[in-house]
Specification:
Length: 67
């Protein structure tokens, strides 16, 4: 993967994708709840789209096994 292929989402953008409130995402991050992998650059928390896709797939797979 090259740097040109890496697209990063902000917390607000992730909130839109997951249909969650920004505050909920921040709370889950601070509590250490299950969230997509992220990186912190300065004070900003950013979420690589490629990792978000993998995380969502894993969440769907784990939920299917519980049913």
């Amino acid at each position: 993967m090259s740097f040109n292929d890496t697209h990063l989402l902000t917390v607000a953008e992730l909130a839109d994708v997951l249909h969650m409130d920004v505050g909920t995402i921040r709370n889950r991050l601070s509590r250490g709840d299950a969230m997509p992998p992220s990186i912190k650059i300065g004070r900003r928390r950013l979420f690589p789209v490629s990792e978000l896709s993998k995380w969502l797939t894993a969440q769907l797979t784990s939920n299917e096994q519980e049913v």
